[in-house]
Amino acid sequence: MSNFMPALPYAPDALAPVISRETIDFHYGKHLQTYANNLEKLIRGTALEGKSVEEIVVDAPEGAVYNNAGQVMNHQLYFLQFTPEPRTGKPEGRLATLIVRDFGSVEEMQRKMNEACTALFGSGWVWLCLNDGGRLEVASFPNGDTPLRHGKLPLLGFDVWEHAYYLDFQNRRADHVANLWKIVDWDVVAGRLGD
């Protein structure tokens, strides 16, 4: 297994029916594994070897290294932000305060994320992120691009590539996104804010 592969904090079937075992097997076990393997091969013997995926995302030139590093980082954050048993169905503490300050309500933030996910043409990611001005925003990124590359801290990301949902929801991207809220681990998302 690649050094870039995160260990899942839940069993492969634990997120069903929102994300099935079959989707985990393909999305985590094949798609992410391929990006991780490709990245290791691409950086071997270069100045990027031994760096964290976050450092690679910031430092890599456009092209194959960045594309694979971006997908590795995005997927690491994605798979680690879910839980089969959310302690709470909504953000709390500082994260909740920032969401209300910057969006008016948690529901409005969710609406903006849902809208961005369905509006993004083709493949990509939608993120709740902290911008360099210290405010939360919803931002869309095509393909494997990442908020980090643009000076934004990624907090919560929804993958809208078809491989993330097609086995479970076919072409119903909006239904997939609506269901993801049921399994978000808000403690993990809040922890990404740092101190």
Characterization of this structure:
The chain folds into two domains: 60 residues, Orthogonal Bundle (Helix Hairpins); 99 residues, 3-Layer(bab) Sandwich (minor pseudopilin epsh fold), CATH 3.55.40. The longest helix is centred in the N-terminal third of the chain and has 23 residues. It is built from eight helices and three strands. Helices cover 46% and strands 11% of the residues. Strands 2-1-3 form a three-stranded antiparallel sheet, sandwiched between helices. The radius of gyration is 16 Å and the shape is globular. A hairpin with a 5-residue loop joins strand 1 and strand 2. The model has no long low-confidence stretch (mean pLDDT 90). With 195 residues, the protein is mainly alpha-helical. It starts with 20 loop residues before the first helix and ends with a helix.
General form: globular
Distinct helical segment count: 8
Give the SSE string.
HHHHHEEEHHH
Helix content percent band: 40-55%
CATH homologous superfamily descriptor of the largest domain: Iron/manganese superoxide dismutase, C-terminal domain
Spatial gap, N to C terminus: 32 Å
Structural class by helix and strand composition: mainly alpha
Estimate what percentage of residues fall within beta strands: 5-15%
Quick synopsis:
By secondary structure, the protein is mainly α. Helices cover 46% and strands 11% of the residues.
